[in-house]
Amino acid sequence: MAAADTTQVIPVTEAAVYETSEQTTNKTKITNTRDSTLSEISRQVDAKISNFREIVDRIKDQYSDVYVNGIRVSISFGWDAKKETDQDILKVLKSAEDNMYKHKIIENESLRDNTISTIIRTLHEKNPREEQHSQRVSEICQFIGKAMGLSEIEVSRLKVVGLLHDIGKIAIEERFFNKPGKLTEQEKNESSRHPDIGYRILSSSFSMLDLADYILAHHERWDGAGYPKGLKGDAIPMVSRIIALADTYDAMTSERSYRNALSEAEALAEIRNNSGSQFDPEIARIFIEKVLNKPWRVVE
Ligand SMILES: [Fe+2]
Ligand SMILES: [Fe+2]
């Protein structure tokens, strides 16, 4: 029993044909092996299941370079087999479908889109400090998401978006980000284009489209004084508000070419002081109290 999916459940002809012949073959086999032990039948079914893997690999191979409107075709598969005569066939189908969705999520998470993963790899190879920063931002975003009680899907979206948030830096001169000392006004303007560039890179891929908006807004501020649009409060997507906090916390607590890292206490004082101006006050409080297990207000 096989299920395949691009954006919804669509049976793939080859898998469906296989399923029909599979059922026929199994019926014949079961009749012919009436004297066989149950474990022998089960072994044969297991061997057949492993054949699905080969079929799936073959179909994936055939579609690996097929594009529709410039977007690479992506297909996810799931399979299961009816091993006992009293097993409900609908439950087997449901299990095949569940497996397909599991694969789909895993494949999305692993940044299937070749172009985007090449860009992020190039950026990280050029600048390993960026890679470590993105990894830490991704982790902090996940901690905040979990502390906020977000769903598993939303937390895994935060994981990916944390990793990709600065992808637009690929088009910005590297020396700006490694410069000892503060940036000039002109350099600041140039480097502040990276959310916009990141948006354009991600919106070129259908599967990354929803992430593009979050990346565009990751330097917006709660009070509206951020960039590129100057969005304010709830008008900033929640995911972007989470990235903004994780990003600033990591930047403050890491060594930079022009200053030493802040201690945790100093960084927390900054977050408290800028809660309601730079940061969403609710997210700031959840981060301090639930993620870092620190009191919101320090008793002097
Ligand atoms: Fe950024
Ligand atoms: Fe960043």
TrEMBL record:
Q: HD-GYP domain: from which residue to which, for each copy?
A: 108-300
Q: Where are the transmembrane segments?
A: none
Please name the InterPro entries in this protein's record: HD/PDEase_dom (IPR003607), HD_GYP_dom (IPR037522)
- State the species of origin: Desulfosporosinus lacus DSM 15449
> Can you say what this protein is called?
HD-GYP domain, c-di-GMP phosphodiesterase class II (Or its inactivated variant)
